[in-house]
Amino acid sequence: MTKELVIISGKGGTGKTCITASFGYLSKSKVMADCDVDAADLHIILQPRIEEEQEFRGGEKAVIDPYKCVKCGLCVEVCRYEAITEDLTVDGFSCEGCSVCYHVCPEQAITMEESLNGHWFVSESRFGPMVHAALLPGEENSGKLVALVRNQAKALAKRLAKELVVVDGAPGIGCPVISSITGADHVMVVTEPSLSGLHDMQRVIGLIRTFNIPITVVINKFDINIDVSSKIEQWLDQNSVNLGGKIPYDPNVIKSMVMKKTVVESGNGPANDSIRQLWDYMSTHALRMETSHGF
Amino acid sequence: MWRRKVLESGSKMKIAVTSDGTSLESPMNPRFGRAPYILIVTSEGDLVEVIDNAVNVNAMRGAGIQAAKSLADRGVEILLTGHCGPNAFTALDAAGIKVGSDQSGSVKEVVEKCVAGKVTFADKPNAEPHW
Amino acid sequence: MLNRTGKVSQPMKIAVASGKGGTGKTTVATSLAAALGERAQILDCDVEEPNCHILMSPQISKSEPVSVQVPLVEMEKCDLCGKCGEVCKFSAILTIGKTVLTFPELCHGCGGCMLLCPHKAISDTPRELGVVETGNVGSVEFVQGRIRIGEAMAPPLIKEVVRRVNPEKIAILDAPPGASCPVIHTVKRCDFVIMVTEPTPFGLHDLRIAVEAIRPLGIPMGVVLNRSDIGDGEVGEYCKASSLPLLMEIPFDRKIAEGYSRGDMLIQTNPAFAEKLCELFENISRIVNKGSDTRLATR
Fold first, then answer.
1. Residue B6's domain spans which residues?
2. CB contact under 8 A, C20 and A39
3. Are the C-beta atoms of residues B95 and C97 closer than 8 Å to each other?
């Protein structure tokens, strides 16, 4: 049965996408999924060739017909999101699609229409099949598109008999992250040795724990601050959270990224070694799969 | 005890089963709110309705809640599924629908198992909150 | 407008955003506010992972819970008509069996069920989203929002933080990462948006997305390039091609990274940046004033 590994970070910029891409290179039987739909970056490294593109309509927005509108202003009064302007047009950005205005309008001048929020894609990448998406800029990231990408990736993995779905998740602890992790087999949290990194990691672990999913933490660039790195290790130990590995700061990572490659493809440097070790650990222990099955 | 109830009331019970397909031979789908189809089968094994659950498969949240409402509106008395989250369970419970969770196999097989009195009904949800 | 020390002190709202997370938004926002001192107020709008407090160690004087109003049904008045469930777009209220169930965590607080219940059987009750905390860091006013873990909706809390902008100060708003809804709610009424990025393919890609999201708001933007000397020249090229002023560069310095990891502000690790950030503010003021002059001239 296909397993799903979701990689998140809490704090942005810890190296989550670089590590996810590296796992994409190292893993032999998988489908990649980019669920950071707000600011998707995985495709920069994986260079997917889009084979299927679909529109994503995530919710509804109210539309006022100016010919039927008698400017009574009742809609403005009832809207709790201040989404209707003085000249009685709907500010699509603020509209939550609740339909209260639609119900109260005495002239039935308001309709609820499905809005285009973004697109999702099924592609073939350098590392195999990939499902990804892009929200239109400024749109609401309600987590629905994230859920869609995951479901499509899982269905694709089942069809192609792939062992694993590797998901690049979203930063933060809100809707899109929740949508990335529910029902996952394992969540890997990438953190960095800073007080902010520790703080954000604690919050995101608090979130994951409400869903009862196994967790492994990775400390990236750990040698930037050995003290804080140790603090993180101590906290993990006290809270019975597994540490999967520590990756040293390595300028090769940025160099590879600028060339749009993963650091493990170059095959040298300390980060390359650590990430390979981390992958061995994740694939043989954390996900409890035999590498001899070649996934 | 359950079988006796069928004989006493003299009417067929409606059983809902979450399914991957539209026939009695289809494999069950484990997710309640987001199964592609929900089949309504009588206690005598007759398929009376196939609910296309597409609107809930694509819903943002509340899929389980809406699916529960669909079953309540149809007078379903038993649901057989894989897992059912806490919101869906609360709704099903309020409607008096018994939930047989952790079930698997084909729709036909699981209905027969239920009629034979071999299904234990859950007293709480067996899935964490999820979307 | 100059204050008593002869420094530019025109109140305005400056958001610090990025597109990509981890580029140095909070680094720039906190040091900018600290460099401006008593002229400034800092508001941490990254309510999911607020970090300004880690670098600034504020004295918090007030903590207010922020709630959304969710339905409470008085069953004695209810006749199970089901209208509330029909109206609700979020499956947060449902008439089923012989009762009405509410699912508060799904509720968006739209008030529809309460308004449209024919028997006026539904009233309001609060669901806590998180807190807004106010205080100060020396002479700098400090505001932050912190969302409850497990709460899905950030924008209502962000709005509450933004409401606390002090119109007499230079308000620096630390935005969440990304380019979606929460960022727009933060920057919406600002006079200027500083985009902090890094000269890498990820930095460029996410900068473009964020710029595209913010452009329709008509707010002037400028770029601060962090770790400016490691990476490539593409962000620079993009700025030129899009007429985005490149306002400041912060070269990579391991000491800055180490300082940040300890919770030190940029201007603590490298005090020379205090003056550079004040100059940054003066440049921004000029751009903002030129913009409003242009608008006046065209009337």
1. 2-115
2. yes
3. yes
